[in-house]
Amino acid sequence: MRIARTLTDLRRFCADLSGGYGFVPTMGALHDGHVALVTAAKAAGAPVVASIFVNPTQFGPNEDFLAYPRTEEADLEKLEAAGCALVWMPDVATMYPAGEATTVTVGGPASRWEGEKRPGHFAGVATVVAKLFGQVRPARAYFGEKDWQQIQVITRMTRDLLLPVEIVPVPTVREADGLALSSRNRFLGAAERELAPALHAAMQATASRLRRGDAVDAALAEGVRTLGPALHPDYYALVDAESLEPLTTLQSPARLIAAARLGRIRLLDNVPVG
C-alpha cells in the first residue's frame, strides 16, 4: 500500500494504477463501516484508493473539529489489511490553498434536516468531495448509508456538475444491538452506550407501523415518545429517499431519518420504509 501526501505523489501513484479504480473518502478514525466500503470497492475488481482528511469546512463554529479523533497509524493498518492500494493524506493547505475563491453551493436534498441544524455543513462536504474527485479522478466513489442525506447531496452534486464518478451507497454496518457504527461512538460513556441502541429500535418499530398502514404523524409521534428522556431528537421524519422532502403519507421510495442527542454525542440513523 502506498501513501501520498503531496499532489505530485498522488498523481504519480494514481498513474501506476489500472484504470477505473474505486475511491473511499474518509475523515479517519476508521471502523468496520469504513472497512466495508473498501471491501465493496474491491468487489468491483479494480484497485482502491482511500483518503484521510479531517475537513475543517464542514464543521460549525461550535462543533468538534479539534476534538475529532485522529488515529493515523491505526487507520493505515486497517486500510492495508483491507487491501487498499493507495491512501491520499493531504494537509489543509493542499486542500484549501491561500487565495482560493470557489466553493460549492448546495440546495435540494441539502436544504432540510442536517442542512438546517448545521448551516454550511453540506457546502463544506460538497466542496471537499468535489476537490477530492478532481484530485483522485476515480470511476466510482463509495459512501456509507449511515449518512443517508449526505449520499443524496453528493449524488446530486455529482450529477449537477457532470462529474464522471459513479456514487455507490454501501449499507450501514451496525453493532449487534443495532447501533450504527460511527467514529464518534467512542465518546459515548458506558451508560450512554447502553441507551444509544434505543434510537434504531424506535425507528425499526416506527417503520413497522408505517408498513402496516398507521398514519404517518401518529407513527412518528409514537416513535419519538419511545426514545425516552435521555435521547433528545433534533428531527425524526419520514422523507422521500432522494429529495429528502417530508412525506405525510407512505410513498416509495421512502426513508425514515433521525438525529438525536445523547449527552454530548449526536446520533444519526436511517432505515428504509416501503
Describe this structure in words.
By secondary structure, the chain is α/β, with parallel strands linked by helices. The protein has two domains: 2-170, HUPs (Rossmann fold, 3-Layer(aba) Sandwich), CATH 3.40.50; 188-273, 2-Layer Sandwich (Pantoate--beta-alanine Ligase, Chain: A,domain 2), CATH 3.30.1300. The chain is 36% helix and 19% strand. It has helices at 7-15, 32-42, 72-82, 92-95, 114-117, 121-136, 148-160, 190-195, 198-211, 216-226, and strands spanning 2-4, 22-26, 48-52, 86-88, 140-144, 166-170, 232-240, 254-262, 265-273. Strands 1-4-3-2-5-6 form a six-stranded parallel sheet, with helices on both faces. The protein has a three-stranded antiparallel sheet with strand order 7-8-9, with helices on one face. The termini are far apart. The model has no long low-confidence stretch (mean pLDDT 96).
Count of alpha/pi helices: 10
Give me the strand/helix succession.
EHEHEHEHHHEHEHHHEEE
Average of pLDDT: 96
What's the CATH superfamily of the largest domain, by name? HUPs
Low-confidence stretches: none
Number of strands: 9
Remind me, CATH topology of the largest domain?
A: Rossmann fold
What percentage of residues falls in helices of 4 or more residues? Answer: 25-40%
Classify the secondary structure makeup into a structural class: alpha/beta
